[in-house]
Amino acid sequence: MKKKSIPSILAMKADGRRITVLTSYDYPLTRIMDGCGVDIILVGDSVGVVVAGHATTLPVTMEEMIYHTRSVVRAAPLALVVADLPFLSYQVSQEEARRNAGRLVKEGGAEAVKLEGGINCAATIRAITLMDIPVMGHIGLTPQSIHRMGGYKVQGRGDEQARRLLADARAVEEAGAFALVLEGIPTPLAGEITAAAGIPTIGIGAGPCCDGQVLVIHDILGLCEKYSPKFVKKYVDLRPIITDAVNRYLDEVRSGEFPTEEHSFR
């Protein structure tokens, strides 16, 4: 299998092949999912919620994103590695956005960056792409805008919101983004955006009409206690399996059953 690239991801839309995306934040999980042949690995700022335990993604820092991106890249994945620009790393100025996007590539090893926003971020997307850094857009339910939205709510219901999201999608594509995440959007609207877009759409809570889908790895493994949105499918529940392993270890240490001669040196 060949290394995934921006051109090969674009070709997947043209050929009608579905694009698979999962989040990852560390070396061992990246090795596993890349061995399965995932197309894109997203080092998401969702790490702040599912790994660090924050209530939102807002506290995540550039240093944390660089650290986790490095951990993923060390696995030498064949998947395309995209890293999130965290809150306040691109909103203040285009100069700061360019610098921080460059840091994720230079220091983290990312092959592309992702940022949230539509028309309001089009100039920033253009500024970053002019540095030859590929950008993935993200519209609809944008977690960094949680306070404006009043929570994690479906976006695009009603004619006015739908028109706004269609305009956002056009602006992101025209600014030079190579792909667009559609989050928390009604299926018909996501289908309309996908049909109109010349770049791949990646859905999360946006129905089956998108060119690809993304989910958080901890969600599909049953390891996120904080929430369980309607759009998440739990493919396995590892929590009881891990709980059993930990309990057995505790019991064996307390009883003296572990370690045995087999696990000891002479």
Task: Characterise this structure.
The protein has 266 residues and is of the alpha/beta class. It folds into two domains: 6-235, Alpha-Beta Barrel (TIM Barrel), CATH 3.20.20.60; 238-266, no CATH class. It contains eleven helices and eight strands. The protein has helices at 6-15, 27-36, 47-50, 62-73, 94-106, 122-129, 146-149, 159-174, 187-196, 217-220, 238-255; strands spanning 19-23, 40-43, 80-84, 112-114, 135-140, 179-183, 201-204, 212-215. An eight-stranded parallel beta barrel has the order 1-2-3-4-5-6-7-8, surrounded by seven helices. Strand 1, helix 2 and strand 2 (40-43) form a beta-alpha-beta unit. The radius of gyration is 20 Å and the shape is globular.
Features:
266 residues; alpha/beta; TIM Barrel; 8 strands; 41% helix
Give the SSE map.
Elements: H1 6-15, E1 19-23, H2 27-36, E2 40-43, H3 47-50, H4 62-73, E3 80-84, H5 94-106, E4 112-114, H6 122-129, E5 135-140, H7 146-149, H8 159-174, E6 179-183, H9 187-196, E7 201-204, E8 212-215, H10 217-220, H11 238-255
Helix pairs in contact: 5-6, 8-9
Share in β-strands: 5-15%
Q: What integer value in Å does the Rg equal?
A: 20 Å
CATH architecture label name of the largest domain: Alpha-Beta Barrel
Helix content: 40-55%
The largest pleated sheet is described as:
8 strands, parallel, barrel
Arithmetic mean pLDDT = 97
Extended strand count:
8
In CATH terms, the superfamily of the largest domain is Phosphoenolpyruvate-binding domains
Number of self-contained structural domains: 2
Strands of the widest sheet, in order across it, are: 1-2-3-4-5-6-7-8
Low-confidence stretches: none
Determine the N-to-C terminus distance: 45 Å
| Coarse structural class | alpha/beta
Give the topology string: H per helix, E per strand. Answer: HEHEHHEHEHEHHEHEEHH
At the first level of CATH, the class of the largest domain is Alpha Beta
> Counting H and I runs of at least 4 residues, what is the number of helices?
11
Q: Give the CATH topology of the largest domain.
A: TIM Barrel
Question: Which oligomerization state do the chains in this entry correspond to?
Answer: single chain
| Large-scale geometry | globular
